[in-house]
Amino acid sequence: MAPTEDAARIISEVSAKNIDDCVRVSSFTHELEESIRGHIHEELTSWLFFRKLAADCSRANIALHGFALYVYLPSNTSGLAGQHRVDVFADDDSLWERSAIESLADAHWLEKYLQRGGRCKPTDIEAPKIEFSDNPVEPVGPVREALAVEKRILEDLERLMALANKVGNYSLAAMLDKRFLCKQTRHVKDLADLLQQVVRVSKQPGLGIFHLDRELRCHDGCLPWGKSNDPEMIDCALQSICTTLGKEEKLLGNC
Ligand SMILES: [Fe+2]
C-alpha cells in the first residue's frame, strides 16, 4: 500500500474511534465514575453550606472576626496538598470561606479527573438550611453542623477510596490518599476541637465567645491547637530534634 493510502487509512480508523474510550482505562468503571460524580455533588453542597456560614458571620449583627482569621496550617511535608492550600487561600478569607474554597477546589480537581474518559453530569444542589443565630449569637449549632459536613465528606471519600481500590484504579486511590484523605481527617478533628471550645465558652453567653474570638485573633489566624492535629507536624518536630542533636554531637566531636 502506498504511503498516502496508508496515512489515509490510519486517519479514517482513528476518526471513527471514540477517543474518550481510548483514554479510559479498564479500571475506570461506570460505578467508579458515578461515585466520583456523587462526591463532586457532596463537595459542591458543602461549598454552598460554607458560603452561607461565611455570609452570616460577615453580618454586623454577628461580626466574628476572630473566626474570620482562621487558617488551615500549611504543612511542609504534605506535598501537593500542602502547596495547594497555600496557593489557593488569600489572607483575608474567613474560616468558612476557606472551607468553601477548599470544597470548590476539590470538586474542580475531581471534575478534571472525570475527563479521563468519563463525563461531568452536574445535579441540582440543595440550598443549605443553616442560619447563624444572632439574637443571641449562638455558634454551637453552626459549628456542630460544619463538623457533620466535614465528617460526611470524609466518609464519602473513604467509600470512594474503597471502591477505587476494589476496581484496581490505583492512580485515583493514590491521589485520594495524597490530596484528600490526610487533610480531611485533620479538618474533622480541628472542627471537633473547635466545637468543644465553642461549647465550653458558650456556658458564659457573650463573654465566652468574645474571648475565643480574641484568642483566634491573637494567633494570627491559626487555630492554637491546629499543629497538634497534624501527624506530619510530629514528624517535622522529630526531624528538627534529630537535626539539633546531630549538630550538638558534631560540636562535641570538634571539641
Ligand atoms: Fe475539609
TrEMBL record:
<feature type="domain" description="Ferritin/DPS">
    <location>
        <begin position="111"/>
        <end position="199"/>
    </location>
</feature>
<feature type="binding site">
    <location>
        <position position="150"/>
    </location>
    <ligand>
        <name>Fe cation</name>
    </ligand>
</feature>
<dbReference type="GO" id="GO:0005737">
    <property type="term" value="C:cytoplasm"/>
</dbReference>
<dbReference type="GO" id="GO:0006879">
    <property type="term" value="P:intracellular iron ion homeostasis"/>
</dbReference>
<protein>
    <recommendedName>
        <fullName>Ferritin/DPS domain-containing protein</fullName>
    </recommendedName>
</protein>
<dbReference type="GO" id="GO:0006826">
    <property type="term" value="P:iron ion transport"/>
</dbReference>
<keyword id="KW-0479">Metal-binding</keyword>
<feature type="binding site">
    <location>
        <position position="184"/>
    </location>
    <ligand>
        <name>Fe cation</name>
    </ligand>
</feature>
<dbReference type="InterPro" id="IPR001519">
    <property type="entry name" value="Ferritin"/>
</dbReference>
<keyword id="KW-0408">Iron</keyword>
<dbReference type="InterPro" id="IPR008331">
    <property type="entry name" value="Ferritin_DPS_dom"/>
</dbReference>
<dbReference type="InterPro" id="IPR009078">
    <property type="entry name" value="Ferritin-like_SF"/>
</dbReference>
<dbReference type="Pfam" id="PF00210">
    <property type="entry name" value="Ferritin"/>
</dbReference>
<dbReference type="GO" id="GO:0008198">
    <property type="term" value="F:ferrous iron binding"/>
</dbReference>
<dbReference type="GO" id="GO:0008199">
    <property type="term" value="F:ferric iron binding"/>
</dbReference>
<comment type="similarity">
    <text>Belongs to the ferritin family.</text>
</comment>
<dbReference type="InterPro" id="IPR012347">
    <property type="entry name" value="Ferritin-like"/>
</dbReference>
